[in-house]
Design goal:
Distance between the termini: 44 Å
CATH topology: Double-stranded beta-helix
CATH superfamily: Clavaminate synthase-like
Strand content: 15-25%
CATH class: Alpha Beta
Number of helices: 9
CATH architecture: 4-Layer Sandwich
Structural class: alpha+beta
Number of domains: 1
Largest sheet: 8 strands, mixed
Helix content: 25-40%
Amino acid sequence: MASVQGFPIATPRPIAAAPVLRLPSSTRNAWIRDASTLDYPDYRDLDAWIAFSQRSVQLARQHLLANLTEALRRFFSPAGENYIVVENLPVDPNLPPIPIDGVRPSSKQAVSEVVIAGILGEWGSIVSYVNEKSGAPIHEVTPVPGMERVQSNSGRVRFGFHSDNAFLPARFRQRGLMLYGLRNDDTATLIVTADQIFEAASADLVASLAKPIFRHACPASFSLSSSPAISQPCPILWRDELGLARVSAASSSIEPLTTEAEGSLRRFRDLVAGLEPARIVVRPGTALLFKDDRVLHGRDPFSGLRWLQRAYFTDSLEALREASGSDPRAFAFDARMLLAK
C-alpha cells in the first residue's frame, strides 16, 4: 500500500474510460446546414435568447440519433456517468481568428452555439453569472495576452485540479460543464473523479475532508470587488443521500479553517497529484460534459492554438431566480447576491 506523508492510501488505479460517442458525418453536415440559418442573439434580450434556445433544442432533437439521445439522457440523470465525450459534432464552417480578448467575435456564425444550447436545453438549463464574462451564456475559453501565467480559463500555464465556482453556495452553483472544441492543437483537459479520490484516500482523511472546515475563494475570472468573495465553511469530499461520491475544491484557493484542515488539505493535494487522470483533447467538434461535483478537472500547460467554448448547466433555475429576485426568464445571476443568501 502506498502512503502520503506517512499516511497509508490505496494504490491509485487509472480512471475508468468515459463513454465516447460519435455523430455520423452525414448527420453532422445536415445539422450544420440547419444551424447556419440561425443568428446568435443579443443574450441580454431574454425573449431573443429564449427563441434561439428553443429552436436549438428542436434541431438537437432532430439531429441527435437515438443512441446518442439515450446516452445523453442517462448522463444527465442524477445517477448518470461522471462525464461523457461526444465527437464529430458541428463546427462553424468559417471560423474567425481566435479572439485574444476572450470575447465572442461578432463575425462568428452561431453553429457551435446552436449545438451547445440545443443539447443542454434538452436536459437542463444553461446558467451564468453576471460577474464572469459579462453574464454570457456561452464562454470563449482562449489564452488572453497578459494573463498567460494565471490559473484561469485565460491562461496558458498548467491549471491545477479544481471545481468551478466552488465559492458559491451549492444550491446556486452549476451542476456541470460542457467544453466544446473549436480549435485545439493537442491541449488535454484532465479529469479525476471523486470515486478515484475516495478509493485512494485513507478512512481518516475521508472523514476529515467531509467536515465543513474549509472555505473556497472566488476565482480570478470573477469580478466581485464590493463584497467578500469566499464561501461559507464546507466540506471537500463527501457522499450524498444516494451514496454518490461528491467533491468540490477550488484548487489553490482553499482556506483551511483549523489545524486539522491544514493537514488534511496538504494530504488531499498530494493524493490528487498522485492519481492517474483521464486526458481528453477537446478537438474541434468534440464536446466534453462532466458533473462539476463528481469530478475535478484541470489542464496541461500549452503553447499552441486553443479555442474552446464553455457553458454551465443545471437542472433548474428556479432557486436562483427566487433568491436573486430575477426576471422569471433570467439565466444570468449576480454572485454577490447569492453569497449573501
